[in-house]
């Protein structure tokens, strides 16, 4: 009787190993992956751009210079 239990144990062990091998050879389950992230896109095309810079300002030189006429008359233009 002891010999019969050993044979049954060996058969059970062989059957379990066979099931393990079959299970290991079956299709592999895919690994868990995060779903792809949705992103927006914009098509960029070169095009001419008119650039107009206007700044309100008042400029002064580092040194102030007085221009005086040495002759009598009316000064029409300051060209300096």
Structure explained in plain terms:
The chain is 30% helix and 0% strand. The chain has 80 residues and is an all-alpha fold. It has a domain at 1-27.
Record field, number of beta strands:
0
Helix content: 25-40%
- Class derived from helix and strand content: mainly alpha
The average pLDDT is 80
Instruction: Quote the beta fraction.
Output: under 5%
Largest sheet: none
Taken from the alpha-carbon principal axes, the silhouette is rod-shaped
The DSSP helix count reads 1
- Poorly predicted regions are none
Element string (H = helix, E = strand): H
Instruction: Round the Cα radius of gyration to an integer and report it.
Output: 48 Å
Q: What's the end-to-end separation, in Å?
A: 127 Å
Short description:
It is built from one helix and no strands.
Detail the topology: elements first, then pairings.
Blueprint lengths: L1 H24 L55
What would the keywords be for this entry?
30% helix, 1 helix, 80 residues, mainly alpha, single chain
